[in-house]
Amino acid sequence: MQFRAPALAALEAPRAPAPLPSFLLRTLLIHEYRKIHLRDPLLPSELLPVAWVGADAYRLCRAIYARLAPVAERHLDSHAARLTGPLPAATAEFWARFGGLRSERR
């Protein structure tokens, strides 16, 4: 299924989005994705329609998240802390989300 993805298109500009907007957009993206995911029947692919919109939604969310994650993490590194000091670095599990994100920071 082909669909328009203006949010992703806006993020594919040559210049990366700034850290604060990246953090805010990533937070909103996951909030909305979780609301949709709660309504997903989570059926095996053999039982889903051929053009199941959930697959496209996952791919779009993954693409947007992958674009925002490194820059959003930079914002967290710069502005958030624990009571005992800086936040720990993102773990391998974090970078494994959505089937694997790029781990280098931009």
Key phrases:
106 residues; mainly alpha; globular
Give an account of the 3D structure.
Helix content is 55%, strand content 4%. The model has no long low-confidence stretch (mean pLDDT 84). It is built from four helices and two strands, in the order H-H-H-E-E-H. It is globular and about 50 Å long. Helix 2 runs antiparallel to helix 3 (53-79). With 106 residues, it is mainly α.
Q: Class by helix and strand content?
A: mainly alpha
Morphology = globular
Helix content: 40-55%
In total, the number of strands is 2
**Secondary structure tally, helices:** 4
Q: Note the gap between the termini.
A: 31 Å
* Largest beta sheet: strand ordering: 1-2
Ordered list of secondary-structure elements with their pairings:
Blueprint: H1 6-11, H2 19-39, H3 53-79, E1 81-82, E2 85-86, H4 92-95
Antiparallel strand pairs: 1-2
Helix pairs in contact: 2-3
Summarize the structure.
The protein has 106 residues and is mainly alpha-helical. It has 4 helices and 2 strands, in the order H-H-H-E-E-H. The protein has helices at residues 6-11, 19-39, 53-79, 92-95, and strands at residues 81-82, 85-86.
